[in-house]
Amino acid sequence: MSAAAAPPILEVDRVTMRFGGIVANSEVSFSVREGEIYAIIGPNGAGKTTLFNAITGIYQPTEGHVRFKGRPVRRLFTVGVVLRSLLIGAATALATSVAVNVTPLWIASIDAHMVYGESFPWMEALASFGRELRAAQQGLGWIVLLVGFVLGVGAHQVLWFNARRTPDLIARAGVARTFQNIRLFGEMTLLENVLVGMHARLHTGFWSSLLRLPRFFTERRVAEHEAMELLRFAGLEARADQAARSLPYGLQRRLEIARALASRPSVLLLDEPAAGMNPTETVELMDLIRRIRDRGVTVVLIEHHMRVVMGVSDRIVVLNFGRRIAEGTPEQIRCDPQCIEAYLGREELG
Amino acid sequence: MTQRSSPFARLLRLDVALLIAAACVPLVDWLWVWIDPGSAPDLSNPLRQALVYAILALGLNVVTGFTGMLHLGMAAFMAIGAYAYAILTCDIYPFQFSFWSALALTSLVGVMAGVLLGAPTMALRGDYLAIVTLGFGEIVQDVLKNLDDITQGTQGINPLPGPVVGTYAFNSEQSTPWYWLYLAFLVLVVIACRNLERSRPGRAWLAIRGDELAARCMGIPVVRMKMMAFATGAAIAAVAGALWVSMFTSTGEPANYDFQVSILALCIVIVGGMGSITGVLVGALAMIGFANLLLPRATGFMQGQGWVTQASVFGNPNNWKYLVFGLVLVLMMRFRPDGILPRGVGSGGTGRGAAARRGAQA
Which residue of B has its CA nearest to A104? Predict the structure, then answer.
């Protein structure tokens, strides 16, 4: 592989994850190069899945950074955000003022001009509305405006801050994942599962779906064709119309991979893809992982199956008690005394 | 799989069959009178309410059935729709829109109300959202009652105009045309829901219901999609409210849009089958048909036999309606928690895989 020369695509930089007093990850660093298969191994509870959750935005690292293609994936605090915040604040302020004074406003603009059976003087009503609204700002009325403004800006800022690094943003940027405990959409067919994975790449919106505009049919044809190709790639084509939950365990894992690939990620995170698989399925899985890499997707996997790890990985990082204890090629890891002590040693003895 | 696409096989689908059966109800009434001129058959009047409740429940189905958000304040959006329609059309206000333009504006008001409530609350999970919507339902009632300079308080707003189609003006003397009108709207809403369900937004909603975290990790902007579902449901509920009050020519008092309306809509969705459009139709027929058709007849029969008196609990259908509803819910939860007609696997387009393969070969 030319992976050694390739630039890093995913960098985990001194990431610490703390939950109360429990430290799940402590200053873990590694970088994954473009086009390689990178394995994260370690005994149970070493913090591997926590690390995946921190990378995909489910958790925010307590300390440290995750960089994808050289920069952290997060929404930037741009002028647009400030403008939108101010706009929402102004709208909330105005709406609050109108809401507080709704009865006098209504009486001044509508009731005062409404004569049953005669045409309504809209311009005068509008003028009265404006006058009354201005009059409402006299005295302590400005407090209402201020409260509305602060409420609007504050709420928008809080929501924006909480949403600045969300899993969907990271997924759209090009990091897809599977889950340790399979999380398929069980009630949906295999095809629909893959189509959900394609969500971010498709464009059919509310109106073209509702009205079945030509755009809808064009995109459906292309999307379903591509989804079937992905199912074929994962060897699931024949079952496309079955419910996902009716699949045997090993195939569910393959479907999860197909669904993750549907977003055309640059990096695919696999969380114990071989768990619960029999030896034949494991060999097929190793082949699948290599074929994914050959499609140009960088693969990061968490795995306990040493055959898989040693068989497919280009490089391996070893975690123990939330700390990184070693990194290297499979041969280096196999001989690393610390790893043998922490992890491999026990397995070889057993 | 292939015969699904033939138009004839479509008639065999249960939802289509139900709507066709609903269209036959007024014909049954006519036929009845024709055979027995002395009788006064009355099927379409009680079932008319089922059509409106079916529309309301389909709106709720988008929120609760597709997206999995528990919504206990659907009546509030119905009330907002009813009052928006009333203020836009009634001749004591200056706006005086026609039925159709007012209806379009009403659905917009519904969307706005949905977005206003949704924007700060869509990030809430499960139970919290249920409590917020519950509270919203109560607040809307109180606001409508207390803003009596605008909403006429407990008197309700009247008179309200009905639609004019061609030269025919809908009026309160003839009730059958309203039945057709409601049925037409129900068909439109069913088609709209089905189109949404079998498309990208619908799949995203169902994915959020199935597993929100997985949906998030697939790149679905969960909050935005939830907002979309919430606003769609609100718009449908608002239209249902406007349709309902236009027949009565009055909004009635705000207390008409109370928690029981929300709960009845929720019961229809749960009894019918969460997320299943056909289920909602069956649920509306079962619940409202029971309350409006079966119950009065059973009460009348028992009184005729001298089993019960006016004063006893069973003397008035409204008295023991909720008793039976409650019992039905308990039994449903015990024996058929997924509803009468649960959402089938692949309801989002059965056999699309086969279709895609055929498309690839062609």
Answer: B149
Smallest CA–CA distance, residue B323 to chain A, in Å, is 34
Could you tell me if residue A8 is inside a domain? yes
**pTM, whole model, 2 decimals?**
0.90
Q: How far is residue A138 from each of residues A100, A130, A152, measured CA to CA in Å?
A: 14, 13, 22
Chain A residues with CB under 8 Å of B345 CB are 187-189, 242-243, 246
**Domain boundary at A246, A263, A280, which?**
A263
The predicted structure's pLDDT at residue A288: 95
Instruction: List the single residue in B201, B223, B352 with the smallest CB-CB distance to A224.
Output: B352
Measure CB to CB from residue B93 to each of A110, A171, A246 and give the nearest one: A110
Q: Which helix (H) or strand (E) holds B190?
A: helix B176-197
CA distances for B61 relative to A93, A204, B68, B202, B285, angstroms: 34, 22, 9, 12, 15
Continuous H helices in B212-316: 212-217, 222-248, 259-272, 277-289, 295-304
For B11-47, give the DSSP string: HTSHHHHHHHHHHHHHHHHHHHHHH-TT----SHHHH
Structure tokens at B329: 């819910």
Task: Write the residue in A103, A225, A246 that is nearest to B147 by C-beta.
Answer: A103
R_g over Cα of chain A: 28
Which residue, A306, A242, A301, A57, is CA-closest to A255? A242
Burial of A199 (0-12, 13-18, 19+ CB in 10 A): buried
- ipTM for the complex shown: 0.90
Rounded Cα distance between A120 and A114, Å, is 6
Contact between A106 and B213 using a beta-carbon 8 Å cutoff: no
C-alpha distance from A89 to closest chain B C-alpha (Å)? 13
What is the Cα–Cα distance from B73 to B336, expressed in whole angstroms?
A: 25
Which domain does A155 fall in, by range?
79-162
Two structure tokens written together for B146: 């207390």
Set of chain B residues whose Cβ sits within 8 Å of the Cβ of A209: 195-196, 199-202
- Closest among B38, B64, B22, B1 to B271, alpha carbons compared: B64
Last-in-domain residue among A205, A238, A263: A263
Q: Which CATH class is domain B45-350?
A: mainly alpha
pLDDT digit string (tens) for A153-174?
A: 999 999 899 888 999 999 999 9
A347 or B88, which is more confident? B88
CB A233 within 8 A of CB A291: yes
A-interface mutation test, from B112, B151, B196, B217, most A Cβ less than 10 A away = B217
DSSP state of B66: I
How is residue A2 written in tokens? 């030319």
What would the mean pLDDT of A20-39 be, rounded to a whole number? 93
Separation between Cα atoms, residue B343 and residue B277, nearest integer Å: 8
Q: Which residues of A touch B215 (CB under 8 A)?
A: 185, 196
Tell me how many domains chain A contains. 3
On whether both A198 and A123 belong to a single domain, the answer is no
